[in-house]
Amino acid sequence: MEWLYPITPTHYLVLSAVLFGIGTAGVISRKNLFVVLMSLELMLNAVNLSFVVFSRINGELTGQVFVLFVVAVAAAEACVGLAIVLALFRLKENVNLDLFRSLKG
Predict the structure, then answer these.
(1) Is 59 left (phi over 0), alpha (psi -120 to 50) or beta?
(2) Does residue 24 lie in a domain region?
């Protein structure tokens, strides 16, 4: 009796789609700026997973090279995003997105 099933690339792509969907739902539904940034990171990681899967399917390293660039851009985005969040927190003393709809003086 076989209890272990082989994990195919389809499983990884379904996981990537689920992670991307969770990230999208987090970006659309949340009002806290930190949660929105974490949801964006989750979406980037889902794309990275699909890059690696397609790279593995095709037998090339191109997708994995793209993943390195995406990770570098995500790190820079996190730094800039957190700097903006800190500046907005100092201005309004809150990180609720509803307060930042109109940033007038």
Answers:
(1) left
(2) no
